[in-house]
Amino acid sequence: MKKLINREAGPVGRWALGLLPFVVLVVLYLVASDARLAVNPNDKLLPDMASFVDAIQRMAFEPSKRTGEYLLWQDTLASLGRLALGVVISAGIGLVVGIATGALPLFRAGISPLVTGLSLVPPLAVLPILFIVFGLGELAKVMLIIIGITPFLIRDLQQRAEEVPTEQIIKMQTLGANTWQIIARLIWPQVMPRLISAVRLSLGSAWLFLIAAEAIAATEGLGYRIFLVRRYLAMDVILPYVAWITFLAFAIDFALKRYSQWRYPWFHGTQ
Amino acid sequence: MAAIEIKNLWKEYGQDVVLERLNASVEEGEFVTVVGASGCGKTTFLKMMLGTESPTRGELLLDGKPIPDEPDETRGIVFQRYSVLPHLTAVENVMLAGELESSPWLGRVFGAKRRALREQAEEMLASVGLDQALRKYPHELSGGMQQRLALAQALIKKPRILLLDEPFGALDPGIRRDMHELVLDLWREQDLTVFMITHDLAEGFFLGTRMWVFDKERLDPQTPGSYGARITYDLPVGNSDKGTLQSISQSVDSTARVLSA
User: Fold this and answer.
1) Domain ABC transmembrane type-1: where (chain A) (predicted)?
2) Closest Cα of chain B to A231: distance in Å?
């Protein structure tokens, strides 16, 4: 038999091995939930499958008794809207500032120290300031996302722009390009797929800041709902919400990856 | 008047003298190969030709005027690697020079002008043997094809001087021979003035019209940086015998051993 280090799973084996931990987790949960419910049928900590189905039915497919809205969808829309707005604005700022500082040494000398300083400020510590300055409305929540991920995006894109080989920058000049043309035809297109990877990396933090902001001041949103029903120990709602948020995060990441592969074949071909 | 004139050129980095007392002049249409051990200032010389480094002393003149101190369209270049832009297809890489020229802001052209540029680019690519690969990205091309593309991209701009920085150093011997023929053909057809850096002596011996050997005449093994390299041989290519090759080769090898020690 081959040494363990040389053994690889076949295509079926890989799927089976990948699924195994999930199955184990679900089974463990069901066993534990069963045990607790046998002792106390009113236990709220580990609800059984039927209560999940019931909660999902209630949140997603029946209008709320109080407002007449479908809560899950309303929350999802509100949260995704904030997330998208925050991430798109951050990506825009990151792209422009990152390219400017990465490509132009004079800009880098002027702006980089400031960005490095700003990136060290813990965004959640600034949250009270945001609420004071921007009020409790949408703006404060979007601003938290922007403040949280923009410094990272700027620094990452600056680095990616600096990584464009000097040979190519010289090459562009020998083809007659001016500074602006070098940015527009060489650096910007080469940085775009890297912007997508940076955004994918920053989405985790973006969700964190979104949920934190919603937990503190919001009237709708996925984060708001979780923290609201926490008061009633409503695990039957919280767990499906967490699963749903995880799925949304996965779907966005997957979509960005596929888009990048389709739009920038040269980037993924050389990796 | 000579296209390139070098008058008592020195290049020093602090205490280290890289090149000293270089004097030469190159006529239009010459094909100069520059050989020498690594560390003997071949690349420094190329950088001064490009304008990314400037001479410490002396003059480097292009058509009687000092070479501009930044790269521009008078001097085309093909590097060993990274010469072509990975995010453009072959034909887009070759069209780029025309697009940059006629559209200072966008760097892109559309419509009839684009079609004209595309036709020119396709012709250029055909002349380097890439007519089958117009729509391929560089990463889909072999090393030799990438260098053909780099040549086409540089030549469509019709540079005054074409600089080649060990362009075939990373290629297999067979492909390298094909590339030699291609470069010679292009040079004859287009009346180019070429400087080619190589560390392959044999390459220097049969390509082009003139070979320069950069070597240190005076070499202090304890402080190799105290004397710079000079042009120790300036040979017309084609009528030099095997003995010369051997003696140059020995001298370059011994310098290389001292420098890399």
Assistant:
1) 76-260
2) 54
- Closest alpha carbon to B217 in B206, B201, B229: B229
Domain that holds residue B189: 1-74+160-261
In chain B, which residues have their Cβ closer than 8 Å to the Cβ of A168? Answer: 82-83, 85
- Domain shared by B228 and B132, yes or no: no
Which one of A173, A184, A267 has the shortest CB-CB distance to B70? A173
Q: Rounded distance, CA B161 to CA B48, Å?
A: 13
Tell me which chain A residues have a C-beta less than 8 angstroms from the C-beta of B73: 173-176
Evaluate whether residue B20 is within a structural domain: yes
Tokens found for residue A218? 């919001």
* CA nearest to A165 within chain B: B82
CB-nearest partner of B77 from A171, A180, A264: A171
Q: Please check whether residues B70 and B186 belong to one and the same domain.
A: yes
- Give the pair of three-digit tokens for residue A220: 């709708």
Nearest to B89 by CA among B130, B52, B31, B58: B130
Instruction: Delimit the domains of chain A by residue range.
Output: 9-46, 61-270
- Sign of the Cα pseudo-torsion (B247, B253, B259, B261, in order): negative
CB contact under 8 A, A167 and B83: yes
Q: Tens-digit pLDDT profile for chain B (261 aa)?
A: 688 899 988 888 888 888 888 888 898 888 999 988 887 888 899 999 999 998 998 889 988 899 999 999 899 999 988 889 999 999 999 999 999 998 888 888 898 999 999 999 999 999 888 888 899 999 999 888 999 999 999 999 889 899 999 888 878 888 888 888 888 888 888 888 999 998 888 788 778 788 888 888 887 777 777 788 888 888 787 655 556 667 777 777 777 777 766
0.95 surpassed by complex ipTM: no
CA distance linking residue B122 with residue A1, whole number of Å: 57
Query: Which superfamily is assigned to A61-270 in CATH?
Result: MetI-like (1.10.3720.10)
Q: Which residues of B touch A270 (CB under 8 A)?
A: 86, 139
What distances in angstroms separate CA A163 from CA A103, A157, B70, B197, B210, one per listed residue? 10, 10, 20, 25, 37
**Rounded to whole angstroms, how far apart are CA atoms B179 and B161?**
19
